[in-house]
Amino acid sequence: GVLRVSREFGGEDSVRLKGPEIVAELRFLLNLLNLCWHFSKKPFPLFLTETGFCPDDVLIQEPKAGILKPAFTVLVDHKNKTLVLLIRGTHSMKDTLTAVTGAVVPFHHSVVCEGGVSNLVLGYAHCGMVAAARWIAKLATPCLIAAVASYPGYKFKIIGHSLGGGTAALLTYILRERKELSSATCVSFAPAACMTWELAESGNEFVTSVINGADMVPSFSAASVDDLRAEVTASAWLSDLRNQIEHTRILSTVYRSASALGSRLPSMATAKAKVAGAGAILRPVSSRTQVVMRKAQSMAQAASAWSRPTLNSWSCIGPRR
């Protein structure tokens, strides 16, 4: 909510990454991103064909998402000697409901090493993603433990994008608390903000987040919403909007009054007759009434002249209602 990516990771003390090892790593990340894209956009059989997998490589398949239950699959990548757990990003209304379940809940991470638990990191995390991660962990843990035992030389990676990226990061924290799965690592593409800062820092060694510039999804969190609310409330926008609403009410009242007056005028055959008829009707009106009508007319003109440029500057909010 308060840190700038450019200041934290792109300052003067940053080191430019180059060389064949970096190129190979970027190609590997691009391959993982390609897996995420196909898994999110294609039917599962077509996903396997497009990415070079066969049905025998699939250990688990949960293709249909539910509320707090995102679609995921576990694959054996023999080419790269990797066990891959893929979590789909926001794809359906049920995924969206999972994403908007944004209340925070306590989330603690126990750091496991060979001698046992070496540290306990306390914090909070996104309620919907925590529930989704725990659901996946419950279904996939037995299969993953068996797969790690069957393929001892294989790495274990958890991959996700957007909503699936945040869920993948939290799932990695959960699975690493088991000794058999403590080598799990995560690559999260454009992950939704999902945990407090201390928890995120504790996962630097095993979670890699790939973010495209100032992408909105990773930047959008409860903290950023609170900052935006405070900024808008403190700015002149709020008073301008209130003034626009008030002037709109005045214009509406004048319009209704003019419409009511027009409905009582007798119909005329020609424009000339209308002008003459209106003059004949208005002449007997008292001088006090004429003053009130002139004030209403000038007020409507002033409100129209004031609101026209201001409303144009607010035209960006029109389509969003």
TrEMBL record:
Molecular-function GO terms, alphabetical: hydrolase activity
A single BP term in Gene Ontology: lipid metabolic process
Hydrolase listed as a keyword: yes
Cross-referenced InterPro entries: AB_hydrolase_fold, Fungal_lipase-type
Matching SUPFAM superfamilies: alpha/beta-Hydrolases (SSF53474)
Keyword hit for Ribonucleoprotein: no
Keywords, sorted A to Z: Hydrolase
Domain Fungal lipase-type: residue ranges: 84-222
Recorded coiled-coil stretches: none
Descriptive protein name: Fungal lipase-type domain-containing protein
Natural source organism: Genlisea aurea
Taxonomic lineage: Eukaryota, Viridiplantae, Streptophyta, Embryophyta, Tracheophyta
